[in-house]
Design brief:
Four copies of one chain form a homotetramer.
Chain A (H helix, E strand, L loop, with lengths): L7 H6 L4 E2 L4 H8 L11 H4 L1 H14 L3 E3 L7 H6 L8 H16 L5 E6 L3 H4 L4 H17 L4 E7 L2 H12 L5 E5 L12 H11 L3 E5 L4 H17 L5 E5 L30 H14 L3 E2 L7 H10 L1 H4 L22 H4 L4 H6 L36 H17 L1
Helix pairs in contact in A: 4-6, 4-13, 6-8, 8-9, 9-10, 10-11, 11-12, 12-13
């Protein structure tokens, strides 16, 4: 029988750094197992080997959290966006928990079950209806006995509060993470106020994930921390940002960038960008530090390497990596060997190789959020009429840009 | 018993498009299984599940060739660059062939065994010595009965000729691919002349791989084809380029770019760039079309989707992808649904999100190639003195840039 | 005897648009008559034909204000920065007024005399001392009977207040313009508060000039206007921005950009940028609209053309320009003729032709302002010791950037 | 009576550097005296003070050649492009010669009369007709006794030969300069062959002007020199490039760039770029070194400062400039003083301040040259039908870019 692992709150209370994992949706889309558009995780059932392998890579990279791949695995989401396999949310969630547990057992990692924003909320369903969806997912997580729970990727703090309230009934530790930046949630609630509300709802760890680049997310969490402290409350902090540079985003984040989701490549962070991110997050007082869309295993490894001293150990995967590029000493070409040092990589400003492209884009800003008819979800495929409507809006947006 | 698959030459003779796979070294480095610097493939022995998974992803993406992961798996390379596990080249090559065969059997793919340039050649060893290295690798490929052979990643046509001559003794079909661009090999031999020499040495398929971006590689193969035709010879053509934009390269390719190998992210091609590449390669008359460093499964899938009409079928992995982004019709946000069409993605010029970076770099140009003392390989780690020498050269290069 | 011209306040009270001129210091530096570093206007005495010609060009371009070229023409400035000709401030100012009057008489323009920030203030001289400097300049302006007075290019509102108080004693209309952006003056006083203080000191027109690009300056004046209105006061508004794009500036403006003052070329605004600026300034309620460093006559003409309807006439110089490029209809090449229309130029995003340069810089931020010893002015040339000090600070700044 | 000045050929024979002037058309367009589109020089008659002032500025900057402002001053050009003042070519040319002579007398400069390509040639008029146009201009130059003659801005070497043959009849020294780059003239004649033909036609100085940036022009002249030397001939060499970076041009030069002529600002060279240009031109063996469109007086001064040692003196205008920025030692702000040194400016890569713009453009390539109906010139304004035709061609070009 393996020794019992320290729980998430015990670790954070002890001041330990907890390394999160990266975003499965984007990584598995590139590997061929997730469909961009619906973004749903049927792969836990149809291609478990692919999901398991990605977990293993993050474990090797240093992750202490195996987040079950349950993103958007609520029945209301699965129904209304083209899922034709008739796999239920419960089936996906169960398989996801099993895969996460299997790999977590191979190292120093905990299993987290997660819920995220629902089409029902955007379509203005009642609190009772929305909470019922979270409860259904929670039942699986309890059955599978995950180590803790995460309510993540919420654009409206109100829905996140509902999720936390549901998850809290389980008695498990609850973390809550919003998809917001320094401008606050989609209804204009500031990061500080969001955090206070989440803590009051019962979250022990609060933070942000997705939608913005690492430095922007760290800034938002810093504002959350200031809000929580000002309110005389206590919490731990988490951050799981994009691995894309997004200096040109508005409050809706990378969704509004013209490059989302199929032309974000030039924005991908290097491992050296990740060192800066990890250091900054640590300085600000965040201790649960991971990633979201765009993070590949080597990004997480870079976070773990930057914080190796604080953690007291290097991640397993560093047996295939020289800290700050030192393994380049073994490269054939002498001029590449000359790059085997921190000063080289730390100051390099990488070129895009795209002289016909600009460095910033103009985000679309439709100003459409919860309650707007364009967001009402339905099971049927988008009609031609609906498409003409959105194309007209897009064209209109361009001509005024 | 499965039906016998058509061989590589039969396919090419029939005018079929053969989709290659992507580069394992870079993909597995990001996943944590290959060490940048030595770049050697011990993972076939130590982490077979990771190698197998990557093969599977390329198969799903539409690859017709499972290239055994044997890059740099020659004993002279394994010895002199920090390989401490005492795994022999033969062990690696055997494991690599088994993994490739296992996955190839799951679909419409052939197994290829490959050899690449050797430290021995760069260190001016004799033709006999160098050929002995290739022979040792070939012995494994014959024992494992691969479907065909590839001599790839050669910077000097002379060494490639030697490789082809050795491989040719097997009776298996031989393809030969140089790591060169339109300027020719590192001794200044033009692509046309290189191709003629390789065909005369016995290669039935000739082309280029690695070192340059897709359009540049296609241009080089076009020059090869012109050379072969002018000489009154016949051959098939292959191309397996980088998935990085490299308009600023000199004749040594991306190795000389300051971003190599750890800051190439902003140069990564989008799937839409791949559509253009696949179409252009096809137009030029190339029929073996694949990828090298930087290619992820979704890049190969884009190649396969672009050529789906010519191939008569979509790749298996397209069940998780809408051609030209059509699956975005199922996205929650209407402005993302507005992007579910070819015209949108085809003309988008993606921003880098890096306004403090330039779009082109100045490549280093040390002008060091076979025969130069700085390239003499040795088993020992780089000494402090050697490092000081290369750092001085690097500094000198910068001040004159 | 010519008809008496309407004064500046009468024009503004009548709701007329008053077009300013461009910055003489930068324009004459490029023509060879001003020395960058000291930036002093001895050319009014030594090369009057060059100064007169530039006035004429701005008059042709549509300027309604001939600002006497008296920038930095205070004795304390002339003394301490390498002026070796022993020309006094009074001599320069008198010559400047005569030149401005001569050209103003040739068209619909008024003559303005101006004072700007003094080394004495930066060196912490007393209010009495600083005011004495302004008084000395004012005496010349009164003797030459200028039409109105401008206190401009102040980084600290306190010194501008002193200037306004002195100028106000003359009975002439007084305009006051700070070299600040939306962040406020160098002591952190907000634009709104600055404006209120200037109005209370007696300025009838308030605004900003220099240091930032047009849109940033318009934004700052908008904040001034909001402040003045909130305080229940009344004023007219002016803006005379740079003709350089400065999105990467901090509160000190373009002085802190690494490109200042000798590599700003890639940032120069096109005439089409000027159309947007003029329209935006007008919309915000600004009626005295001109330019500062970087403005060439064609920039002012573009402002005048954009506002031709509001002014009721085109500028004289438009006889050599087709509105929105229509004169290109007479170009030899048909593809250039195709550019003779507004939609073409309005949406063009001009390339830099510099793929090895970034699009944004990191400004230096020494945080040195009034009261800091590094700003104490002295007559002697910079000593070697002082230079070593600043070079060390510069190096330090770079390594932390 | 002033001492007789050394002629152009005596200077070049003696190995002296002769500094040219900059392009009047672009400089005076920005000042309000030339209309872009027709580009004709009526200003010599209507605004002589503006033309005289620009000559003076170039003289101060170090120019040894006052080129009479006679660009496009042929009657066939004046007639067919909107010149409504009924000023004849002879009137313009006479006034231009007088202005050039007046200013040349004030310093060490010679007067040159010039002819350039004609609409008649593009419209396929006969050699006799075209030569008659040159002869008419030459008659004025002889009457005004210019010091030497320049045939410049020819896109087809054949027309330039005709011009040289006419000018040669005068007995004056003849220089010939084509508007071509390394790809050769618009009919594909290589720079080397062009130069040989011009020398054989009678030109004593050959080179290129306009259409490309300095380094590209120097490269083209280098090819000319190689051609002339290979043919066993002798000549002197001249170069008068653009002051715009044009790495993205095709063979037609900057005319084809989307930014021509009203959005070239981001491409303007800095004075430091000019130092590199002057040094490179000198190294290649060019001794007549000047500028064309985009050159302002400070650009020529930078050329003269870079070659001050070779010329044995600084230009007069350097009394208002510190070599390599040294006058910044007298700047108020210490961090600007820190920029008063060569290493700072020599290595600075200036940002564009335009993150929404790319660094390179795609030139239009209509492939229309002499003989194409779209180039047939007529006196009437462009018709609506003609405009629709060119707009269609432009749109078509864009969609395939």
């Amino acid at each position: 029988m393996p020794p019992v692992k320290k729980g998430i709150i015990e670790r954070l209370n002890a001041g330990e750094v907890v390394i999160g994992d990266g975003g499965f949706v984007f990584a598995l889309e590139k590997r061929g197992y997730v469909k961009a558009g619906p973004w749903t995780p049927e792969a836990t059932v149809t291609h478990p080997e692919a999901v398991r392998q990605l977990h293993r890579e993050f474990l090797r990279a240093g992750s202490n959290v195996m987040q079950a791949f349950t993103f958007y695995a609520s029945d209301d989401k699965l129904e209304n966006r083209g899922q034709t396999l008739k796999i239920t949310g419960a089936q996906i969630n169960e398989a996801a928990c099993d895969l996460a547990r299997e790999v977590a057992s191979e190292g120093d990692a905990l299993v987290a079950g997660g819920v995220s924003q629902t089409p029902s909320y955007l379509s203005c369903k009642s609190e009772t209806d929305v909470k019922a969806i979270f409860k259904k997912q929670l039942d699986v997580f309890m059955k599978k006995n995950v180590d803790f729970l995460i309510a993540e990727y919420f654009e409206h703090v109100e829905e996140a509060e509902w999720a936390v309230q549901v998850l809290k009934t389980s008695g498990k530790p609850v973390a809550a993470s919003l998809a917001i930046g320094p401008e606050g949630d989609m209804h204009g609630v500031s990061p500080g106020e969001c955090a206070v509300r989440l803590v009051k709802a019962g979250a022990q760890v609060v933070g942000v994930n997705c939608h913005f680049d690492p430095m922007t997310c760290v800034e938002a969490v810093k504002m959350m921390k200031a809000g929580v402290e000002k309110a005389g409350l206590k919490a731990h902090y988490m951050v799981q940002p994009l691995a894309f540079h997004t200096p040109d985003c508005n409050c809706q984040g990378f969704i509004d960038l013209p490059e989302f989701p199929f032309a974000l490549e030039p924005r991908i962070l290097t491992r050296w960008d990740m060192h800066k991110y990890a250091r900054e997050a640590y300085k600000v007082g965040i201790r649960f530090i991971g990633g979201c869309c765009g993070f590949e295993p080597y990004h997480i490894r870079a976070v773990a390497e930057e914080l190796a001293t604080e953690k007291g150990k290097m991640p397993p995967g560093s047996d295939k990596h020289g800290m700050w590029g030192t393994a380049l000493e073994m490269h054939t070409k002498p001029w590449v060997r000359a790059r085997s040092r921190r000063e080289y990589w730390e100051h390099l400003k990488p070129a895009s190789g795209r002289p016909h492209c600009a460095s910033l884009s103009t985000p679309e800003g439709w100003g459409v959020t919860k309650g707007h008819t364009d967001l009402l979800q339905h099971k049927e495929a988008t009609t031609t009429q609906e498409m003409q409507h959105v194309l007209q809006m897009q064209k209109k947006g361009k001509s005024t840009a």
